[in-house]
Amino acid sequence: MYMDGSFALIQKFDQEMAEYTLKEEKRQLETLCLIASENYASPITVGMEGTVWANKNAEGYPGHRFAGGCELADKVENLAKERCKELFGCEYVNVQSMSSTLSNVAVLRALLKPGDTILSMELNQGGHLSHGARFHYSGKMYNIVQYGLNKETETIDMEQVANLAREHKPQLIICGTSSYPRMVDYKRFGEIAKEVGAYLMADIAHPVGLIAAGVIPSPVPYADVVTTSTHKTFRGPRGCGIIMCREELGKKIDQQIFPGLQGAPKMDMIASRAVLFKECMTEEYKEYQKQVKKNAEALADGLKDCGLRLVSGGTETHLVLVDIRELIPTGREAEDVLGSVGIVVNKNMIPYDPQSANLASGIRIGSPALTTRGFKEEDIREVARLLAKALKHHKEEAVLDEVRSAVKEKASHYPMFAEKWIPRS
Ligand SMILES: *Cc1c(COP(=O)(O)O)cnc(C)c1O
Questions:
Q1: Where are the beta strands (DSSP E) in 324-402?
Q2: Predicted local confidence at residue 79, as pLDDT
Q3: What is the structure's pLDDT at 47?
Q4: Is 100 in the pocket of ligand 1 (CB under 6 A)?
Q5: Taking a C-beta distance cutoff of 8 angstroms, is the pair 244, 90 a contact?
């Protein structure tokens, strides 16, 4: 195909860009990525982006396009939708949104009037900015009421959710989180929404891969709408959101994506997601997701053994939220020190954090990326020990040097994408 060899052309034409790209590849290979929202995209799916589908304008929806030559584009988009429905058992799906944040905006616009009430999780306790943060569209357009965590258990306070729902009678309840290590009780959320006559939206951008593989329960039977990204645990390329919903909401949501918010969809990204959905149905993918969960547990245990406190005491998903104050004062310092030895993480607030978001008292880490590279439980435990060692000795250059060498050595044994996860058929 004509796009094969395009990097060779770039190397000739644009050395600066080629150099940055090769350096970034090296960085991704030589460091240990524990960022819970990152992954290495499956080479099968990423290969569809930048194919001839990148050329096609397919404004509109299958069967109702505003450009000619869309017969095959219609087939591709319909195939993506059918596969997604089969994978999650949902009634209706939109695959055109260009990010998961935009998906959420489209859903709010489809279901609510400005000024309606949304009950959602507080950002600082594990929610997402698109669930009603002050500075986001969602927070500016709607009346936001927020729930959080029980202070003792650091798990979602379902009593509080029920009480706030009864008191404020929201039109929409949002569940689904960005930095919450536990499973969300979608069934209970569904009952509460039904009781007060609210829609329920579940945003599964983070744990979606575990859900797709059946490793943890799905919200699809309980929620009116489910939104997700495709690049976190899902392991597809970055960008693009997916909206699943009950049949009768489908047309309204479609209209909010196009023409409400967007123009023509990115056909190469849709083609790529269609391949991703097929990949999710393979044994290799299911094995991968099981390993992600096992590795997150190993990471949690390893860190606890090193004396660190974990928010909620552990994990039931792919991520761990670590209170780092036993070893280093702030999340920002932790992120910097770990970055300097090649362990890539992000600072994160912990529940009832005394620090500002800029400093924070925790780090949020996860197993998806290292699991993609082929790490097993014992490897992850070793990473946990290195991480704790760097934090504990953050002022001792000699110890940091040791950790830096160990990280580089460890990373050098693993490819970006382990052979065993590539589906054989
Ligand atoms: C990451 C995340 C998103 C945003 O995804 P983008 O594709 O980056 O817009 C939305 N919701 C939740 C809960 C997330 O964790």
A1: 343-344, 346-348, 362-366
A2: 98
A3: 85
A4: yes
A5: yes
Amino acid at 280: C
Q: Which of 190, 275, 192 has its CA nearest to residue 240?
A: 275
Query: What is the Cα–Cα distance from 372 to 379, expressed in whole angstroms?
Result: 13
Three-class DSSP category at 225: strand
Q: What is the pLDDT of residues 165-194, one digit of tens each?
A: 999 999 999 999 999 999 999 999 999 999
Q: What integer best gives the mean pLDDT of the chain? A: 97
Distance 396 CA to ligand 1 centre (A): 37
pLDDT at 3 over 90: no
- Ramachandran area for residue 247 (φ above 0: left; ψ -120 to 50: alpha; else beta): alpha
Query: At 242, which helix (H) or strand (E)?
Result: strand 241-245
Which numbered atom of ligand 1 lies nearest the CA of 127? 13
Which tokens sit at 63? 């069967």
Nearest CA to 311 among 371, 277, 265, 360?
360
348 lines ligand 1 (CB under 6 A): no
CB 182 within 8 Å of CB 156: yes
- Cβ(179)–Cβ(172) below 8 Å: no
What global pTM score does this model have? 0.97
The answer to whether 282 and 108 are in contact (CB under 8 A) is no
> Does the CB atom of residue 37 touch ligand 1 within 6 A?
yes
Identify the H or E element spanning 87.
Answer: helix 71-88
CA–centroid distance, residue 229 to ligand 1 (Å): 6
Does residue 181 have a cis bond before it (omega within 30 degrees)?
Answer: no
Q: Give the alpha-carbon dihedral of 225, 226, 230, 234, to 10 degrees.
A: -160
CA 10–ligand 1 middle distance (angstroms): 31
Distance from the alpha carbon of residue 232 to the mean position of ligand 1, in angstroms:
9
